[in-house]
Amino acid sequence: MKRFLVRSISELVTCAGGKKRGRAMGDAGVIPDGAFVVDGGIVRAVGTRRELEAKYPGLPALDCGGCLVTPGYVDSHTHLVFGGERSSEFVRRLRGEPYMAIMAAGGGIAATVAATRAATEQELAEAALPHLRRMLAMGVTTCEVKSGYGLDTETELRQLRAVARLNGMQPVELIPTFLGAHAVPAGEDADRYIDYCIAESLPAAAESGLAAFADIFCEKGVFSLAQSERYLRRAAELGFRLKVHADEMSPLGGAGLAVRMGAVSADHLLQVKEEEVAALAASETVAAVLPLTAFCLAERYAPARRLIDAGAALAVGSDFNPGSCCTCEIPLSIALCCIHMHMSIEETLTALTVNGAAACGCEDRVGSIEAGKQADFLVYSCPRKEFLPYRTGANLVRSVYKKGELVYG
Ligand code: NIG
Ligand code: FE
What we know:
Structural class: alpha/beta
Distance between the termini: 17 Å
Low-confidence stretches: none
Largest sheet: 8 strands, parallel
Number of helices: 16
Helix content: 25-40%
Bound molecules: N-(iminomethyl)-L-glutamic acid, fe (iii) ion
């Protein structure tokens, strides 16, 4: 079915109109009894069923059975490609050991680095595949994926090649990010490691063309503001767009740095300072919050309500990784946004779709049901968006379409 009308939609949530900030995030572009025309995998027209049936008589129809339809989700922050697993660390955390203390004692990210260095590109891709399948079943149609478990040029590039390989193995579209500065390698000094990234791994990643974004873990005990700035300046010079792991465990000022560097997103923000909330709100940098990590670490949530009220553009990602947050459950994310971060369901859907796309630099192609964009959309088993947090934790996605093709359900 090359050209068809999607109809019998009780509530069509379009998320149209580009990246949204502040109050505008509450407008998710809802059309009761909505419909849209898909042609060659692209959305051509959006309106009510009545309008489009009159304008496009006789088109074959995809009948959604009177259910909710939204754009596919864009998970704007994951560490999906890695070797091994860290369940024993999880148990240590349940007994009270802090995440950063485990890391400082040589565990945490370093454990995954050892397992990732030992894995082949094919093994890395195969290990990620079941997680991606699960994400697809929950409605994720685009997903950012970081390197960061190699901490040497060879393994970082192997991770990025695994992402490229995965792109061809399954329907979720992957956006790769180079995260060479994820941790200081064992026995290395942070400044010397940043020198290495500047001289070797960042240029090699740029040369490879495997990632459009560069990211750094700007954190007390990992990379300081000054080290992060040196790294990000070099990355920008080499043509990368920037992302920053900012103010996750301590209020170091990573969000302010992200804004000053013109980063596309500042991510985590659990500990962001009030003046940096204002700086984010006044900037083009997307505030990417990751509620599943706060939940798994039993830390406070990022101040999503204050960020939105101040006028920031907020995205929600999963942060799926083998350590701090080994989950990418969209239904749980939605529940945490609405119940614990006091976001409306409209704001939550905006954050998971068009603003997630903005955080990945692909809002021109995906993130909304709007003329000219890819026909990436979800058909649910419920009639209205309010069911998503109300049926707390349940996956109500019935079928998933990518570029107009049924890819799940
Ligand atoms: O975003 N904070 C740094 N990186 C990840 C955790 C990675 C890991 O623990 O393996 C995060 O939470
Ligand atoms: Fe992360």
